[in-house]
Please model this.
Amino acid sequence: MEPSQTDCIFCKIVAGTIPAKIIEQNEHAMAFLDLQPQAPFHGLVIPKMHVASLNQITPSERRLILPELYEMADQVAIKHGFREDGYRCVINNQALAGQSVFHLHLHVLGGGKLKGSFGQ
Ligand code: DGP
Model:
């Protein structure tokens, strides 16, 4: 884990140097709207510290970071009123799985009937 990485777009969102529609944040995590929504609601929950992907964290970091991301996803789902009806959480890990931004992020998709079981 690194505090931030200068060429990382999500680190820039955390730093406030590029804009995003921020939904929620605390000391360790931030949630903001995805620029290319794939569902009626599409948010991204990220750790504020730079972590490139699931592959770059140690087991002890994983035990800290993932619960924080899922906790914030739960808060986002409550805030946006779709927690009870249902929503989807997805982490794309590495390029073959569709990861295009190499700062770990949890997609939170909801706000209506989602297509398929996993993705679009
Ligand atoms: P993934 O393909 O799993 O790495 O998802 C990356 C997501 O990030 C993708 O759905 C589009 C979104 N995204 C890329 N650049 C930006 C940006 O500058 N701002 C915001 N809000 N979202 C972005």
